[in-house]
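debug: dumping io for the single-chain case to check the tokenizer round-trip. Nothing else runs in this session.
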Amino acid sequence: MHVRSAMHKRRWCTLKVALCPVMQHSSWGLMMSKATKIQPRPTAVSEPYWQGCSDKELRLQFCTSCNKHQFYPRIVCSTCGSSELEWQKASGQGTIASFTVVRRGVSEAYTAPYLVALIDLAEGVRMMSQVLTSNPDDGRLRVGANVTVSFVEWSPEMMVPVF
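debug: decoded output
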């Protein structure tokens, strides 16, 4: 009976983590206080994009076979399958296709509320980005609004595009 009772308690802890006294140990709180933002990991394919961000320049891949831009970086064209890709500086102009207000960040590293939007760039591609605004709830942001890219420091090593 004693073994079964211990197994039941252990199972309870794994199934009900939020209520488990084991998970409320003081070291758990220490782990949460060290929260940092998730860091993108540049690859050989995406390195020119991230270098452009460091230079405060939005760069997109352009297929010289079908004359189409694409985003996110890939090894082949998503339209025609060609590997004839080059990097071009984008205009940085776009319109908001959709957006949401994030009211609870995934960790303490993300200060909520903030806006995340799908941006239709003038080059014909869509990207997701944060939209900077002093008050996400003021109602001034709308679908179809024109936006322009700018760059913010995500970490000491990385800049990211925002609108």
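debug: round-trip ok. Residues 2-15 form the longest helix (14 residues).
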